[in-house]
Write a structure and sequence with these properties.
With 227 residues, the chain is of the alpha/beta class. The protein contains 9 helices and 5 strands; from the N terminus they run βαβαβααβααβααα. A 5-stranded parallel beta sheet has the order 3-2-1-4-5, with helices on both faces.
Length: 227
């Protein structure tokens, strides 16, 4: 079975891809350089793809800085020092939301999947880490699957395209525990939204804070902090 997996180089996409591989899928990894300020994650995506022994790894460049609208694709400041237990993190859409990003990414994955004659796409969205992002919700995933059924030759001919979200109902700690069970090296990953010039995580953005909380609750040491 072939599956196109969206691989960012982050903890979640690495774990989602590893779960798919464990389930028997042959992985075709797709990484998108979209003008993100944390482009350091592209290097991590390459390392993760190598570790997973994927069948093929494609990198595509689409510069979303042309539109802006996000602190990840502009000079606007990235939120820092927010309380990860605050209900605001899960209920408010932060400035790090990139307009339509997952719609764009899934569309690219769908295009490659059609060429590969693959009917499965894997994405590492989850309920905790979406921080209020509208394109990480189960209803969005279901809507995209419906779109794939009516917008592709494979769908029209009766083949169902499935978007796998193995992490969507897991907490960050549960994701980390699952990755540890699979023997993943999280030292290869990158999560920080606003890294220092040398690539070191800031430790203060939402992504860093949620990652730290997840490792703490999982009872596992973060190899990036150890390093």
């Amino acid at each position: 079975m072939k599956a196109v997996v969206l691989l960012s180089g982050g903890l979640d996409s690495y774990t989602a891809a590893a779960i798919a591989k464990h389930q028997g899928f042959a992985l075709y990894a797709l990484t998108v350089a979209y003008g993100q300020r944390h482009a350091r994650e592209i290097e991590s995506a390459r390392a993760v793809a190598h570790a997973l022994v994927v069948e093929e790894h494609k990198e595509i460049t689409i510069d979303l800085r042309a539109f802006g609208g996000s602190s990840l694709t502009s000079e606007d400041p990235v939120p820092r020092d927010r309380d990860p237990t605050s209900p605001d993190i899960a209920s408010q859409i932060p400035s790090t939301y990139v307009p339509a990003r997952n719609t764009i990414f899934l569309s690219l994955a769908l295009g490659w999947a059609e060429v590969l004659e693959a009917h499965d796409i894997v994405i590492g969205v989850n309920a905790l880490d979406y921080s209020g992002y509208p394109d990480c919700r189960p209803e969005f995933i279901r809507a995209f699957e419906h779109l794939a059924a009516v917008a592709t030759r494979a769908g029209v001919e009766g083949a169902r395209v499935r978007v796998h979200t193995p992490l969507i109902a897991l907490s960050k700690a549960e994701i980390i525990r699952r990755g540890v069970e699979l023997g993943l090296d999280y030292g290869l990953t990158h999560s920080c939204y606003d890294p220092e010039p040398g690539g070191r995580p800031c430790g203060r953005c939402d992504s860093c804070v949620i990652r730290a909380k997840g490792f703490r609750e999982a009872g596992v040491a973060d190899p990036l902090v150890m390093g």
